[in-house]
Amino acid sequence: AGLGQAAMYAGLQELGVANGEDLKETLTNCTEPLKAIEQFQTENGVLLPSLQSALPFLDLHGTPRLEFHQSVFDELREKLLERVSAIALEGKVEERYKKLEDLLEKSFSLVKMPSIQPVVMCVMKHLPKVPEKKLKLVMADKDLYKACAVEVKRQIWQDNQALFGDEVSPLLKQYILEKENILFSNDISVLHNFFSPSPKTRRQGEVVQKLTQMIGKNVKLYDMVLQFLRTLFLRTRNVHYCTLRAELLMSLHDLEISEICTVDPCHKFTWCLDACIREKFVDNKRARELQGFLDGVKKGQEQVLGDLSMILCDPFAINTLALSTIRHLQDLVGQDTLPRESPDLLLLLRMLSLGQGAWDMIDSQVFKEPKMEAELITKFLPMLMSFVVDDHTFNVDQKLPSEEKGPIPYPSAIPEAFTKFLQENRIACEIGLYYILHITKQRNKNAFLRLLPALVETFSDLAFSDIFLHLLTGNLTLLGDEFALEEFCTSLFDGFFLTACSRKENVHRHVLRLLLHLHHKVAPAKLESLQKALEPTKQSGEAVKELYNQLTEKLELRKPSPAEVTETPSMELPLPAVPTPASR
């Protein structure tokens, strides 16, 4: 209690105002306590002559003096807070800040007094530059630091990167966790997936909003956050940091914070790309605009390519560029045009290549656009176009009246070069995977089964990355009825998923997610062998065990109960696994 009292009166003595300690001392050393109290009240009460006669009137009504003084105090504090906010807006800039600085000087010694603290904090909040000494005192005291406004904290942070890092770090962790939770969500749907929310909706997320608020208009803090994101991206290769880089800039853009937007050289490029991401397509007009930015990087300013590559490495950007590429390829088939003759397509590849090269560029600090391999354009993309043609030909053949030679089978062989490209060329692999997502979404089972074997070994295991598996599992729900067929399940599970389950925990999780969603469609014999194959090992993480238990529970519920099968009264004894008809 002594400590609490001390805090209540903290700093009054320095201002020559009597406090509880003084009253205690007076009473300890006096002969007539009542007189001493009266004198203390007169000296320290509200000094208004008209009040002296009114106080006894309150006494008659049984209103304690404390209650009266408290209400006067609260009223005065509100008035003072209003006045401080008003001073911060009136008169010449130098004068108003001079007034506030004087007020801070007078009141700062009371900053630990709970009843006065809001006033001191309010004065500091309105000062664009709080004196260094005061900032240091605030920083050194945990409670004061916690209590001060974000405007004051910004002034502390801009010269204390480590402290700012401590504040930002949990938010970045939370952000990555939120992204992973969406990718591993139990809701599997082709309509609502990782890429469904619009950029504007994503920027309303808690982390982006908090970071935007912490940065305010402070370029130095913005640069620090970007530095944190670059460092973490380098350390972890986690592409969600690239998303946050773009979202943060666009969140400041939404608030029209020109102090920051005008100094970020990526602003206009990101703004244009953001519009493409919103439409999930890069149209010709925007393509030319984006190309203008890339061609406009001047000599000596190549470092901006590092930032642009990070913006393009955002999965939402890659998704938009890859979807646009697939659409362009289909159009080219209809126009009888080769990929190398389409400038729009070449620009998409250039941007994909810049995005995919982000990590290497930032790591090596060599800022130049990656070289595009000619074979990607002259061999790989025409090969994808030939797959589109195969589908058209097959569909036409199916409709022709069949002659004696019987129906023409779907081409099952994959060109060796396709598999090789997926293994050795990152851009080819990315486009190849998006082509496979595209045919799955079209419910094209034949094309899917034909190309699936090429996914077992891909460039840096891209076919087993979370984003691809998240999208693939969603699209596979459209082929739900095929899961009843042994051949389809063997190709998909044994031929693809199970090849990586034991070495990649994330693949194990995605297969279990898929089965939780589609188990009722899978042939029973296949389901049983899958259940065995997917059983968690000692090394499996909690998430896998949890999903496996959910699946087991669902399958238990589906089994017909022994009582139904045998029609015998149920006994307490455990029944055999395969119920036998009871002999009567």
TrEMBL record:
One of its GO terms (biological process) is negative regulation of transcription elongation by RNA polymerase II. One of its GO terms (cellular component) is NELF complex. InterPro entries: COBRA1 (IPR010405). Residues 558-584 are annotated as: Disordered. Pfam families: COBRA1. This is NELFB factor.
